[in-house]
Write a structure and sequence with these properties.
The chain is mostly helical and 445 residues long. It contains 19 helices and six strands. The strands form three sheets. A two-stranded antiparallel ribbon has the order 1-2. Strands 3-4 form a two-stranded parallel ribbon. Helix 2 packs across helix 6 and helix 7 packs parallel to helix 19.
C-alpha cells in the first residue's frame, strides 16, 4: 500500500522512473558489465566471459524479484545482484565483480542516475527561464508600485521583477553545470580505495569503466565517492527550491484580495477553489510549491551529516541518501514544471497595477522631489529632511502630497508647479528599468 506522497501525488513519471527499483537495478548491472569489459581489456579475464556478462547484465535476464529474494536471505543488496547476475551468466558468472567492493557499484550507479536527473533539471530550468523571459519582455513597460518592507516604495515595472527572476534561474543553470563536474563521478578502486583487488592495472580498469559510462573519476577514493560532492549537489537543489519559493511567494502576495495585481491560471469552468466558499480562486500551485520547497531544504541537514563517516567509510549515509537523493530531484523537477505552467498562464492585471500605483498617492514620489530640490542647489541632507517632514505631515493630515508641497514655501519657492508635476510623474521615474530588462534578456539568451 503506497505511503509516500511521491507514489500517488507528487512527481513526474520521467524523473521518478530514474529512481525506481527497476532502473536502479539496471544501472547497477550497467556498472558490473562495464567492469567486466574493462577487466577483459587489461587481460584479467577473457573477452568471451566479459561479453556474456555484458549481455546478461540486463533486467531482461536479471529479475528484480530474484534479487529481492536473495537479498531477503542474505541481507546484502549488492551481493544479491552479483548472485542473480552470476546465475544468468553461467560459467562466466565466476568473473562478475572481481576486485570490486559494493560501493564501487553503488556510487557509480547512483552517479548514472544523478546524471540523467540533472539532464532533466537542466531542461526544466531552461524552459522556465524562457517562460520568465517571455513574460518579462511582454511586461517590460508595465508600471506598478514597488514595495519594500511590505510598504509602498517607488514605481517599478512588472517586467523588471520577472526579468530578475529569469536571471536568478540563469544563475541556477550555471550552478548545476558547475557542480555536475564534481558530482558526476564514479569509483572503481576497491574496499578502501587502493585498488589492490584489481591488480597492478587497477587505475586502467577504473579509467576504462568511467570512460564507457561517461563519468568522471573520484581522484581521492576511500571505500566511497567523497560525500562533499553530494553536499554541494543537495545545496544547489535547495538553492533552486529557495528561488522557487521566493517567486511563488511573490505571486501569493500579489494575488491577495487587497492587491490583486496577478493571479494564477484558474479554469473557472470546472476548477474548485474551496469546498465551501464557492467564490474562491486560491493560489494553490504557488502554495503547493512553497511547501515542497521546504521539504527539499530540509534535506540539506542530512546531506551534511552524511558526509561525516568513520575512517574509510561506515553505513550511516546509506539509509539517508536513499531518501534525500531521489526525493530532492523528484520534488525540484515537480516544482519547476508547476512554476513554468504557472508563469506561462499568469494573469497580469495591469489596470489594477496602475490603480494601486494611484492609490499609493503622489507621496511615493518623495525621492524624486528630493532629487529635484538637490538639482536646485539644496544640500542632499537638507532636501531629505525637508521632504521627509512634508511627507510625514501630509500623510498625518491626510492631505494630497502635491497640495501640501505647493503650500510649503521651502518647496514652492524652489520648484514651480510644472517642475513639481514633472517630479511627481511616476512613469518619468522608472530610471533604467527598461534597459535593465533588455540587458538581462541579452545575458540569459
Amino acid at each position: 500500500m503506497p505511503v509516500c506522497p511521491l507514489d500517488f501525488r507528487y512527481g513526474r513519471p520521467e524523473m521518478k522512473r530514474i529512481f525506481d527499483e527497476e532502473t536502479r537495478l539496471q544501472k547497477l548491472l550497467d556498472v558490473e558489465a562495464s567492469l567486466a569489459q574493462a577487466q577483459a581489456k587489461v587481460g584479467n579475464i577473457k573477452q568471451d566471459h566479459a561479453d556474456i556478462i555484458k549481455k546478461t547484465a540486463s533486467t531482461r535476464y536479471v529479475k528484480l524479484d530474484r534479487v529481492r529474494e536473495i537479498d531477503q536471505q542474505i541481507n546484502h543488496e549488492i551481493t544479491a545482484v552479483i548472485r542473480a547476475l552470476s546465475e544468468q551468466a553461467g560459467e562466466s558468472g565466476k568473473f562478475v565483480h572481481i576486485g570490486a567492493t559494493s560501493n564501487d557499484i553503488l556510487d557509480t550507479a547512483q552517479a548514472l542516475q544523478i546524471k540523467d536527473a540533472m539532464a532533466i533539471l537542466g531542461a526544466d530550468l531552461d524552459s522556465f527561464k524562457k517562460t520568465l523571459a517571455k513574460r518579462a519582455k511582454e511586461h517590460r513597460d508595465t508600471i506598478m508600485v514597488g514595495r519594500t518592507h511590505g510598504q509602498y516604495a517607488l514605481p517599478i515595472t512588472f517586467g523588471l521583477k520577472v526579468a530578475n527572476f529569469a536571471l536568478e534561474v540563469h544563475r541556477h543553470q550555471e550552478r548545476l553545470r558547475e557542480c555536475s563536474k564534481r558530482v558526476l563521478v564514479g569509483k572503481m578502486s576497491g574496499a578502501v580505495g587502493t585498488g589492490a583487488g584489481f591488480g597492478p592495472k587497477s587505475l586502467d580498469i577504473e579509467k576504462e569503466v568511467m570512460k564507457e559510462l561517461g563519468l568522471g573519476i573520484e581522484e581521492g577514493p576511500t571505500q566511497i565517492v567523497a560525500r562533499d560532492r553530494y553536499v554541494e549537489m543537495i545545496s544547489v537543489l535547495a538553492n533552486i527550491s529557495t528561488s522557487i519559493e521566493k517567486f511563488a511567494t511573490e505571486v501569493r502576495n500579489l494575488q491577495r484580495g487587497e492587491i490583486a495585481e496577478v493571479a494564477e491560471p484558474f479554469d473557472d469552468k470546472v476548477q474548485v477553489g474551496s469546498s465551501t466558499m464557492a467564490h474562491k480562486r486560491n493560489p494553490v500551485t504557488a502554495e503547493n510549491v512553497c511547501g515542497l520547497a521546504r521539504i527539499v531544504r530540509g534535506f540539506v541537514s542530512p546531506a551534511f551529516e552524511s558526509a561525516i563517516l568513520w575512517h574509510e567509510r561506515d553505513l550511516t549515509n546509506s539509509s539517508a541518501e536513499r531518501f534525500f537523493v531521489p526525493h530532492s530531484f523528484i520534488l525540484v523537477d515537480d516544482m519547476l514544471a508547476k512554476m513554468d505552467r504557472l508563469f506561462a498562464g499568469l494573469v497580469v492585471n495591469s489596470a489594477v497595477m496602475e490603480r494601486n500605483l494611484a492609490r499609493a498617492g503622489s507621496v511615493i514620489m518623495a525621492e524624486s522631489v528630493m532629487v529635484a530640490l538637490i538639482q536646485k542647489g539644496v544640500g542632499r541632507q537638507d532636501a531629505h529632511e525637508m521632504i521627509r517632514a512634508c511627507s510625514m505631515e501630509s500623510q498625518r493630515a491626510c492631505e494630497d502630497f502635491k497640495s501640501y508641497l505647493m503650500n510649503n514655501k521651502s518647496v514652492s519657492s524652489r520648484l514651480s508647479e510644472k517642475e513639481l508635476d514633472a517630479a511627481l510623474d511616476a512613469r518619468a521615474y522608472l530610471g533604467q528599468s527598461g534597459q535593465t530588462v533588455d540587458n538581462i534578456l541579452r545575458i540569459i539568451s
